Amino acid sequence: NLIRVGSFVGLGCDSGVGGSIFLMNLSIAAAKGEYAGIVPTRNDQELSPMNVLFLSGEEMLGTFNERNPNNWLDLIDYHDNVHFDNPYDCAREIYKRLFKSDKNNLIVFDGLGLMFPEKMKGGDVQTLIALLKLMMKDAAQRGYYWTCLFRVHSTKTGTDSKTQKRNKLAGSIRWDQMGNTTMIMSYGEKANERCLHPMKCRNAPNERNLTYVLRLNERPYLHYEYVRTEGLPPRKKWKKLCRKEREKIIAMNEGGMTIPKIASKTGRDYNTIKKVLNLKE
After folding, report:
1. 220: preceding bond cis by omega (within 30 degrees)
2. What are phi and psi of 165, to 5 degrees?
3. Could you identify which of 87, 154, 161, 263 might form a hypothetical disulfide with 186, taking C-beta atoms 3.0 to 4.6 angstroms apart as the criterion?
4. Rounded distance between C-alpha atoms, residue 281 and residue 138, angstroms
5. How far is the C-alpha of 174 from the C-alpha of 177, rounded, in Å?
6. Chain segment 222-241, per-residue pLDDT in tens
């Protein structure tokens, strides 16, 4: 229930984790009318093949063709190395390709920031989403639904999905306000495992306490496979600093000990130690 028809979904991940492959797997399943986490919301209709428009800011065609020998790219309207001058040009191109469609549509933005010559500002993201919502409303009046998937790069690398926070996503404020679901994908414990963690899910709020472990398989084609569900570890409750502990931290710093070493010795957070020392000054 993470991805529903007629919703906006943001997938946050570091470069190289495999976000593009994940989006491609969802796109192929949607085009074939198979279950892949995309379910109807407004009625109980059965899944049917969707019209998929896949836009990528990178050159991924060669990679997908090498790793997916079944010619599944023929099932979707795929375009890579896509560039737009502004959000309005992007919206016009999407409308031109989809306004005559007589199916539910899935629109995938793989690397939205790369599609614009200049760095995309928060206001541009807001404008594009507002334009897409207008087109989605128009399509809904004709009985069809649009679903939008965005790949959003993480602003910090090397982080585990179980400790990820929303502020580590580029443009996180806009995504939280305007999107229906925000997910994080990162490396798992094993080399071929990935963790998928919902940071926000309006349709299924209880999903935020879970992490889905996926296995990346090379054969017979490159695809993800669900392995297991894990619960998030409980948050550590920090005790308030007492005067004695503050004096100890200050004394350790005056003795030449660095902040990271003090944090390790005391079991406190780096920023907490820094705050104590700044207060001393």
Report:
1. yes
2. -125, 160
3. 161
4. 60
5. 5
6. 888 888 888 765 555 556 77
